[in-house]
Write a structure and sequence with these properties.
Layout lengths: L8 E4 L5 H12 L3 E6 L2 H13 L4 E5 L5 H15 L4 E4 L14 H29 L2 E6 L2 H5 L5 H21 L4 E8 L12 H6 L8 H6 L8 E5 L2 E5 L15 H7 L1 H4 L13 H8 L13
Length: 299
Amino acid sequence: MPVSLEGRVAIVTGAGGGLGRSHALFLASQGARIVVNDVAQHAADTVASEIAAAGHEAIAAAASVTDEAAVEAMVARTMERWGRVDILVNNAGILRDRSFARMSIDDFRLVVDVHLIGAAICTKAVWEIMRDQAYGRVVMTTSSSGLYGNFGQANYGAAKMALVGLMQTLAIEGSRHGIRVNCLAPTAATQMTEGVLSDESLTALDPALVSPGLLALVGEEAPTRAILCAGAGHFATASVTLSQGVRIGSGADAGERLIRDWDRVADRSGEIVPGYGFTQAERELASVGLHAPVVASRD
């Protein structure tokens, strides 16, 4: 059956250009009503006008994702206009690339603030709305730089991997309220990648080839806790896994025995994707014959 977002309301941050603009245009084409967020009013207005010209509904909302009051005002305006928020795509971001040795803490903090704290602020602003309506779809924008590392991007990589951790926990907490939370790891030609890739590669990495991945992450049958990697029309999923491991035990030479058995400890055959963080502790306690108690959820 075709997936439709008809009647859904979506906020896309950093949507005044690049990948965010592509996301906003795509979601609008699928029937969603769009809040085009950008730090620049003109950029947000331009994309909202594009959506309207195509026969869809959109409003422009200029706000920094790091400004709690401005984000809350944006969400309040959305509720006043449409009465609900169904989808949040946390896309806004910046780069301050430099090797860690040359990177200032100010530049490290700035990138983490926009990507991670900004996503947390925006998600917090819509979380109770989604809980109350028993429906929500949140997409965090992670990156291969966070999942696997990339030279000169310690700040960016740290923020992007932190978003995976945020997604993992929010997906668990939101599950009973009809909220599904996923990550998108895009590779796209934007202002953030100009000068890094060849012209041919930039053409192949059209942001418009990434945005269709959102349909799988925000539709009625969306998964939760998925990491979707997308670029050039190619899609894959990534996972944080746990090896079967080996019980080393205690003793003064435990560290030396761990070093000796490292290949067995790190053997990836039989690795799993844990359903929740306590899986590690359950396995560790089971190795000494103990049963881990069920951790009661607190909400």
